[in-house]
Amino acid sequence: MKGENLELIKTKFLQEFEGAKTSKERRKICKKYLEDELSSVFASLKKLSGKEKAELGKEANNLKELFSSKMTMLKEIKKEKDEWIDVTLPGKKPALGSIHPLTRTQRRCAEILSHMGFVTVEGPELESEWYNFDALNVEQDHPAREMQDTLFIKQKNREKLSPRERLLMRTQTSAVQARYMEKNKPPLKIIVLERVFRNEATDSSHEINFYQLEGLMVEEKLSVANLQAVTKLFFHNFFGSDVDIRFRPSYFPFTEPSFEVDVSCTICKKRGCSACQRTGWLEIMGAGMVHPNVLESAGIDPSQFTGFAFGMGVDRLAMIKYEIDDIRLFYGSDLRFLNQF
Ligand code: DAH
Q: Would the CA dihedral through 102, 106, 107, 108 be positive or negative?
């Protein structure tokens, strides 16, 4: 091992380094010299001793310094390149969400009815049998309890509990009527826009949970004419002033008289199509004058006050309005469907 040898290695290195075309090649060269060449230099240094070892050792270290400084420089350049940001590139647009069709429908309903002076109130989804049935004049063995496919809550010694203690998932927002009337006295003008539950097999028009719009107005001297006026105004605003509305006699335990309300088919305009089963009409809402027993059990004097109530499915309103033929789409989280709104 001689000093000239080290000088030779240095020259060779610089030649190769300068001659390389890419920085990748340069890095390779640095690595080769740092690892292979230097390790054989240091290995042969071990065999020397005294002054010679010290002198050559110093030179070898200088060489090492040179190789690694070049390597560091290359790394710095690469890092700068990797971190470089092109500020002239157009920005990425974040995907905007849209409002769910049911929310949209709920908001529209609330908007129309609030213009008529109705105030939105809330009630619990986990409800007692009392408010869901008893306070609404639905007798113990009344088929309506079965008819609505109730999801009852398992409770210890359930049969010994009172109706106010027995729990279920409410089947109708009418339960909120009973709750509200117990605490608030007429004049009342409220709506409820909330979720209800039914123990049902699902298909294109049935879901185990869906949304209802419930309305209640209690005052002195209210009549069916007032119910009809509010109904007409609501549907004309919701579907457009060209829809016709008709009342058919019906039965609900909590109203007397009771009605089924239809709107003329918004798709075929009464000509008859599959959406209205060729009848020209769409069943849309249950309604009636609040039964005196319901007022009484909430502590309101039926000889002084009368009221009307109505209830309908928000999902059904949305299906008709947006021509959607399967209720399950609302709950499926399919973005191809949701992004259309
Ligand atoms: N609660 C009824 C149902 O779920 C709908 C209904 C009918 C509500 C008549 C009312 C009413 O307020 O007066 O089928």
A: positive
